[in-house]
UniProtKB/TrEMBL annotation:
Keywords: Cell inner membrane, Cell membrane, Coiled coil, Membrane, Transmembrane, Transmembrane helix. InterPro entries: DUF883_C (IPR043605), DUF883_N (IPR043604), YqjD/ElaB (IPR010279). The chain crosses the membrane at residues 90-108. Residues 34-65 form a coiled coil. It is found in: Cell inner membrane. Gene3D superfamilies: Apolipoprotein. This is Membrane-anchored ribosome-binding protein, inhibits growth in stationary phase, ElaB/YqjD/DUF883 family. Residues 13-60, 82-110 form the DUF883 domain. Its main location: membrane. It is a single-pass membrane protein. One of its GO terms (molecular function) is ribosome binding. Pfam families: DUF883, DUF883_C. The lineage of its organism: Bacteria, Pseudomonadati, Pseudomonadota, Gammaproteobacteria, Oceanospirillales. Belongs to the ElaB/YgaM/YqjD family.
Length: 110
């Protein structure tokens, strides 16, 4: 399992901060509705909508970036595996045969 990178930790912290700010704004909106002050409600609603929009955009951007990083990592690993098999065909055949025997033995025990 891969260890967490400083970039991942920063992303996680930013997400926590975004959600904290959003929840605080929503709490303010709920408190303001108790006062029933129309101008105050409108201002807080606009702030809440803006923070929600900003948070959604950040989450979408992070999701796209994480997807791209995962895709690049998988592609790199598949290329490395392909290169190894082409450079060491007999070793690859031996590994495949050993794995097949183990799986066959496990299935045969049932």
């Amino acid at each position: 399992m891969a260890s967490r990178t400083p970039n991942t930790d920063a992303t996680t912290q930013q997400l926590k901060d975004d959600l904290h700010h959003l929840s605080r704004t929503v709490e303010e909106l709920v408190s303001a509705t108790a006062d029933d002050s129309r101008s105050n409600i409108k201002e807080l609603r606009e702030r809440a909508e803006q923070r929600l929009k900003d948070t959604r955009e950040r989450l979408e951007a992070r999701g796209e970036r994480l997807y791209g990083e995962a895709r690049d990592t998988v592609t790199h690993q598949a290329d490395a595996c392909d290169r190894y098999v082409h450079e060491n065909p007999w070793t690859s055949i031996g590994i495949g045969a050993a794995v097949g025997m183990v799986i066959g033995m496990l299935i045969g025990r049932r």
